[in-house]
Amino acid sequence: MPQTVNAVRIHEHGGPEVLRWEQVEVGDPGPGEVLLRHTAIGLNFIEIYQRSGLYKVQLPIVLGQEGAGVIEAIGAGVTGYKVGERVGYAGYSAGAYSEKRLFPAERLVKIPDAISDEVAAAVLLGGMTTRYLLRETYVVKPGDTVLFHAAVGGVGLIATQWLKALGAIVIGTVSTKEKAELAKQNGCDHVLLYSDGDIAAKVREITGGKGVPVVYDSVGKDTWEASINSVAQRGMMVSFGNASGAVPAIEPLLLSQKGSLFLTRPTLGHYVSTPEALQANAAELFSVIASGKVKPHIGQRYALKDVAQAQIDLASRKTVGSTVLIP
């Protein structure tokens, strides 16, 4: 029987004011689906992009890319899961800003006993993103010097710890001196403030003029010049977000002029496009957390109905680490 639950939905693109706390109907799970009751939901920048219209979505829509909870019902043909089991997901489709939702079983991952629902909801999207960035997009090797922007964001705090565990020398960028201290505590060997001026010149100084073999940049417009100018010859520029706005259009010749660089704009969906890839990615993430090499940092919690304020705080760089929404 369909049931009515609370959710946050948008009917038009715009500012935080378009986020509406309202009731929606959730039906019974169909073939291959489960009914999931959320216990924790992750907050991510992609939801701001979708709300604002930077990323086009079909309206109306319940936003949210990441969640954890308990299976309440199982549809026909679902194997490997049972009612009452703790599961999580990230990055497959919107709909997490809700008390309950239907979700395809083949896109779920089981949450290990050692990991709480809040941690799973906080790290699945950022953690699996980190995993593909460091282990597939560019395979970080011991001794590599890496520039990672937004070092104390939801992805940043996971990535800097993981980079350190891989034996990298980590240069992180942050917006305040307080965040700089947190970055140092979480794997950064060098921390640069955006307000200090020429980031690329400082990176070149740290690396003896060579630059770094890889830059990971989720900030976008504001850091593009610093990033591209920090990459060593034949190095890789990894642009995986637009927190400050979209990067400018470039001519391919620029990559030649800057040192025969590689430029990529990856997204998680292409790295977990099969159930097998999804399970492998999540398993490695949960393993590195269980080992203690990466310690998740939940910097703030909000009630789901207060997600507008949570998005405002995220966009204005007031948040640290991951943010969790509680239904």
Automatic annotation (TrEMBL):
Keyword Oxidoreductase applies: yes
CDD domains xrefs: QOR2 (cd05286)
SMART domains: PKS_ER
A Pfam entry, by short name: ADH_zinc_N
Keyword match Heme: no
Keywords recorded for this protein, A-Z: NADP, Oxidoreductase
Domain Enoyl reductase (ER): from-to ranges: 14-325
Name listed for the protein in its UniProt record: Quinone oxidoreductase family protein
PANTHER family per record: QUINONE OXIDOREDUCTASE PIG3-RELATED, QUINONE OXIDOREDUCTASE-RELATED
Origin: domain of life: Bacteria
Native source species: Lacibacterium aquatile
